[in-house]
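Ticket opened by: R.M.
Priority: normal
Category: complex prediction / small molecule

The reporter submitted a protein together with protoporphyrin IX containing FE and asked that the result be attached to this ticket for the collaborator who will pick it up next week. Submitted input follows.
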Amino acid sequence: MSDHVGVRHLVVTRHALVRQVLADPVTYRPDNALDAVTPMPVTALRVLAGHRFRLPPTLANNSGASHPEIRAIVAAALHPERVAAQRPWLTVLVRDRVARLGARLDTGAPVDLYADLAADLPLLTLARLVELPDAPVGAVKEFARAALELFWAPLDTDRQLALAAEVGQFHRVLRDFAATGGGLAGELRAAGHPPDVVVGALFFLLVAGQETTSQFLTLLLHRLAGEPAVRAGLRTGDVAVADVVEEGLRLEPPIVTWRRVAATDSTLGGTAVPAGSSLVLWLARAGRDPAVVETPDEFRPGQRGSRRHLSFGAGAHRCVGDVLARMEAAVVVAEAAPLLDGVTVVRPPWCPDNLTFRMPDAFVIRRSAGAPA
Ligand code: HEM
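Result attached by the on-call engineer:
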């Protein structure tokens, strides 16, 4: 396919082929993972340069020798035991919010489950696992969404300039923190990684480690609003929360595509792939491959193939925050699904044009007239 600027991509949709590409980082390298899909004009590059913005390969786009070590340091910070230790705290926080949102619904007022519940939970949780710059939650959210738009959306020049200024400014905050901050930043420095690498790792973590999960929580709650039988099963215990999360990841992944670039000439599913080709791996589509899932388009927690989705990628670069994302989603499903009983969707999530991220902006509900409180 040709994209909006005429660049050709090979779009990979079948589960087996997406998996084959992800599992072979030698033939299909991750180097283009963070390339801007709308090439940046010199004016925007100047804005970034003015902020001394640099993003050397650290995690997702790093096929170099430093990747395993950087990844190991990040993985240690997100170790399953450390994640599990946050669960009681998060449960209390979500339960408290859900009680207040339920009371608001009882008054007949609308509730935005993105802004009022899902938006900041992942960032608050991440901050307890990884020391982060002392920036207000709102500023981090804005920076992260600006970065997702700048690198993955079709844009005009004016918008690119505005986004470059926003992303550049936050890069400055990260640079200061990378030079002095403790926790993960300190460990990366102690392992001998230069300041640019520390900034790059923090930059990616602040985007990938919270915005993705906020998006997922919103999309999953919206999906559950239209799945009363699944909610009934959750209530009676016939449907497991973990199965709902997995089916949600399969059908409502916040990251719909991910890219690789061919390092050598190869053949994929009978199609020639010349060296240098950009491959767009359609993760969301692979999750609906009838070769893998029994009823691909239906939300059936626990069905055969439900867990075989590729929403976290696969292979050497597979998402290192999957345990954290799953824990957060499980807490939110368990605590917040009852809020969806007897409500009307006032405003479903709207997702802007973006190659990779869904970026829902709101999800507003209101108690239906006559529904029991
Ligand atoms: C539902 C939420 C999330 C989804 C769907 C998701 C999805 C992904 C995907 C598709 C990749 C690329 C994998 C590949 O190239 O094979 C990735 C990489 C990554 N993710 Fe996530 N992610 C989520 C949440 C998180 C969280 C919570 C964190 C950390 C706090 C995180 C940190 C990372 C990192 C560091 C990488 C790069 C790993 C590497 O290159 O070695 N992600 N994620």
